Fold this protein.
Amino acid sequence: MALAQPGQLSTKNKKAISLFQEGRMQFEYRKNEEAYELLSKAVEQDDNFYEAHMLLADVCNDLKKNEESITHYKKAISLAPLRFPPVYYNLAGVEMDMNLYSDAVQHMQQFLGIKTISKDLRTKGEQRFASAVFAEKAFANPVPFIPVNLGEAINSIHNDYHPSLTVDEDLLIFTRMRPADGLTDNGGSMVEEDFYISRRRNGEWLPAIPLGEPINTHGNEGAHSISPDGRYFYFTGCERPEGFGSCDLYVSEKAGDKWSKPKNLGELINSSTWDAQPTIGPDGKTLVFTSKRKGGYGMADLWMSRKRDNGTWTMPTNLGDSINTPFDEFGPFLHPDGKTLYFSSSGHPGMGGKDIFYSRLKADGTWSTPVNLGYPINTKDEEFHMIVSADGKKGYFSSDREGGIGKRDLYMFDLYEAARPQAVTFMRGKVREEVSFKPIAANIEVIDLETGELKASTKSDAINGEFLISLPSGSSYAVNADAKGFLFYSGNYTLGKELTQKDEYKVDILLSPVKAGSKVVLNNIFFEFGEAKLKSQSKVELNKLVQFLESNPDVRIEIGGHTDDVGNDEFNQKLSEQRATSVVNYLTENKIEAARLEAKGYGEKSPLATNATETGRAINRRTEFKILPSK
C-alpha cells in the first residue's frame, strides 16, 4: 500500500497520527504484533482515519486475523472508494482465504472496473477473478477426498514431502528436511534435505532409511523422480561446483543394490538460472522439468527434453501456453501412461493458492487445457507435487494438515475417476543367457503394435538381470528384449481397458547367442486370415528384425512359416511357404541382401503345442527365424 505523507493524512487528530506513525515503523521492522496494537489504538482515536485502517488491514492479513482484516479494508473503501484501487484486490484475497468466494467475485469485478489500474495489476486481477469464480463453484461441489497418513514408518517429526514411486508401488523415495549435522555444507543453514527410501512388504511400508551415498551428500538434495522401472533416479542439486546455474538436474543409475555417482545432465538441459523438479516418462526418454530460463511465459515454466538413442538430450522446449501462464508452474509428474501430466500452478483458475492440475497429451503432440483437481484436494493453501499410482486409482501428496505425525507428512487418497490417468500394469522378470543362465544387461521396449509408438523402455540390471517395465491398458503390445551378441526376444501382450492388481506379468526371458541353429519365434508377425498378406501391425516386429540384421551383417537367416492342422496338408504347406516369402520380401525391400535370406514353409509338420485346442493352434500358427551356417 502507498501510504500518504504526514501532511497528506486523512486526519488531524495528533494522537491518532502519532500512534499511526509509530505503528508504521513497527510494521516496517516486521514487528506485526506491536504494529497491530498501535494501529488499533489509532483507529479508536479516529474511526475515519483512512491510512490507519488500510495499514491495519494489511497487518491483520499478515497475522491471519482475517475477519478484522476484512473489516478494515471495507472501512477504508467506504471512506475513499477509489483512492487506492488495489484495496479491492487485497480484500478479495482475504475473502478467498475465508471461503467467502461470492464476496471475492463481487470485489474483483469492482477492481477490474477501475480503468486506471496498471497492465500488470489487471493481469493479476483477471487471474484472481477467474479463480474466485472457479472456487465459488468448486467449494459448493466438492470432489471425493479422504487422505490417509502413510504412517510412522514413512513420516517423521520433521518435514517429509515430494514422493516418487516405482510402477509396482513397492519402492518409495521421498525428501526429508532434518536438522543440519556438523558436516552440513549449506552456507550456515540450520536444516538439510536428504532422500529417504522405503520398501513395501506384504502391503506394509518398512521403516524409511536414508538413500545414502553417493546420492545423499552434506548439501541439499530434493525435487526428484524415480523412473517407473526403478533404475534411474533424476533429482535436483543446488550450488554445486560443477553446476551451470543455481540448481541443476542430475541422474544416477542403479546396478544391483548400488547407485552410481550422480551425473550432471549438462548445459543443454541445465541453464544459467534455476532448473529443478524433474519427472521422467515411462519411455525413459521424455524428461519434463521446471525452469526459470529465458523464453518462458512466466517466472517458472514447465519444459521438456527427449533423450536421443546415443544418450544425449535434445534442446528443451516449452510445454506451451496451454500449460504455462504468466505466473508459476512447477512440481510436474508425468504418469507411467506417458500422456497424463499432473502439475501445480498459481496461474490457472484455482482455490486461491497454488493448486494441482492435470492435462492430457493430445494426438497432435500438444497438451489439453489443464483441469483443476477441485476442492478439497485443492484449498486456499498451497498444494503441490502429487503423484499417482500406476493403476491410476491412488494419489500421493504431502501436507501440513492437522493430525499429522510431523510438520509435513505424506498422505495417500483414492483419486476420483474423472481425474485418473490411463491404467498401467507392469511386467517384471529377469533376462538371462539361455544355457548358462547368467544375467544379461538387455534393452527392453514396449511398442504399441497399432501405432508403432514406443510406450516404455528400460534396461535389465547387469548384476542380476532384473527388470520392471510398464504396460498401458487398452492396446496390444510388442515386448522386445535385445543385447549385443544375442538373438532378440519377441513377446506379445494384449491388455483390456480395465486392469486390476492381478494383471501383473512375470516373465523369465532367455536369450540365445547368435550362432547357427539358434531360432526365435516372431510373436508379432500377423497375416490376414488364410492369406500371406502381412498386417500393418507386423511392421514393429519386421523393423526389429531389420535392425538385428543390420547390426549383424555377417548373419544369414531362414524365415520359417508354420500353420496349425486346420485344412488339408497341401494348402497349409503352400500357405506357410507364401507367408515366409512375404517376410523375406519385406526384408529385401528394406535393403537386406537377398543372399542372406531363405524362405521355407513347414506347413503343419512342426507343431509346438497340441492342435486339439484353439490356444494350441494359435501357438502353432507362427513365423520363426533361424540362424544359418555361414557360407
Residues 1-6 have pLDDT under 50 and may be disordered. The longest helix spans residues 119-140. The chain has four domains: 6-140, 156-181+188-419, 423-513, 515-631. The chain has ten helices and 33 strands.
